[in-house]
Amino acid sequence: MTISATRPSTSSVHRAWPAAAATLTIDHSALAHNLALVRRVSGVDVMAVVKADGFGLGAVQVARTMAAAGASSLGVTSIDEALALRRAGLTLPILAWLAHPGADLAGAIRSRIELSAATIEMVLAVSAAADKLGVTAGVHLEADTGLKRGGASATDWPELCRVAARLERAGSIRVVGVWSHLARAAHPHWSAVEGQVEDFQLAVGEAFATGLRPTRIHLANSGAALAHPRARFTESRSGAALFGIEPVEGREFGVRPVVRVGARILHVREVHAGDAVGYNAGWVAPGATRLGLVPIGYADGVPRTLSGTGWLSVRGRPCRIVGAISMDQLLVDLGDLDAQPGDEAVFLGDPAMGEPSLAEVAARAGTIPQEILTNLGNRFERIHRGAQNVA
Ligand SMILES: *Cc1c(COP(=O)(O)O)cnc(C)c1O
How far is the CA of 49 from the centre of ligand 1 (A)? Predict the structure, then answer.
């Protein structure tokens, strides 16, 4: 039997479909712009914070762009995150600020990862690991100045400094930095951070009084770097602003959006007045309309709380999410818009293009932009536009 050479007609296929239906595009020129903005406005060095896989966007790629754009160091939470950056060839100083005494301190020290210590136990553990290797470990001592999260209390701080100074004289550690973290840096008024700045100045003074000579003094995150001059010291630890989040309530510094998330509409269907739509009839059509099926859901990081309240942009028009957002898909109400399968629906993008902004999506979902970014799943095709190829 021969196979017919006649192929099915392709005339009904109106466009070429991309291989990936859902994409997450990271604009590296916006990342570089935002780093330059924080540097210029603050006038001090920037430690680019690339924790949690670079706020979910790819720590290595983001870190390369930050290095090329003038970051003076990198900041992460864990030793594993720091080692991944070293393995990728990044040579900037890297601080890991939430390692614990049982972590791979030797591995970190061997890779010239700087470690934070907020307790005597931790500073002793770092010192012991460095001693074994016969090297000097770089340490940043953390003081609590009001956040009451990490950091030595004002009571414990002088003794921590004295122990660190003794170990420094013995050669196993070098206290390169002293730092603390702000509780209310998003607040536009100085009074929100003033008390912490003053307590931090006292803590730095006490460190110097024990003989320590840290050259890196850091308190500010992005919000304080941009809005609170007296919180800047020698450098900021900036994350949010780099990733396109305006960090200070009610103020705009010109941070550029970094992320665009979109997916192709896979299917368009007509529904009639009274039709129940989605799981548990989460929405009943008030009149005849057309619905577009978009293949992203809560497992991809679209918060389920956006069911009925969020929107995606299709052909430049806002289309409301209707029915319950599913694990892998959602429906938008296209109304009388002449949208077709293959059209892109934009979940996150540039408000200047009529697309939902990260800030709006977060506000509608009842959360903060950071949580939206870090929840974006791994099923998107990630497109790094304008990324650096070298460390
Ligand atoms: C996340 C984090 C930062 C970055 O703060 P942004 O507000 O994102 O700029 C700085 N320091 C520490 C300790 C952090 O955990």
Answer: 7
Using CB distances shorter than 6 Å, the residues near ligand 1 are: 49, 51, 97, 181, 221-223, 237-240, 247
Residue 32 belongs to some domain of the structure: no
283 backbone dihedrals φ, ψ, rounded to 5°:
-150, 140
Query: What is the pTM (predicted TM-score) of this model?
Result: 0.94
Q: Could you list the residue range(s) of the whole structural domain that residue 311 is in? A: 10-24+258-385
| Residues 169, 280 share a domain | no
15 pLDDT tier (thresholds 50, 70, 90): low
Atom of ligand 1 nearest to the CA of 77: 15
Q: Is the pLDDT of residue 263 over 80?
A: yes
Q: For residue 49, what is the domain's CATH number?
A: 3.20.20.10
Catalytically active residues, by annotation: 51, 279
Consecutive H or E run containing 27:
strand 22-27
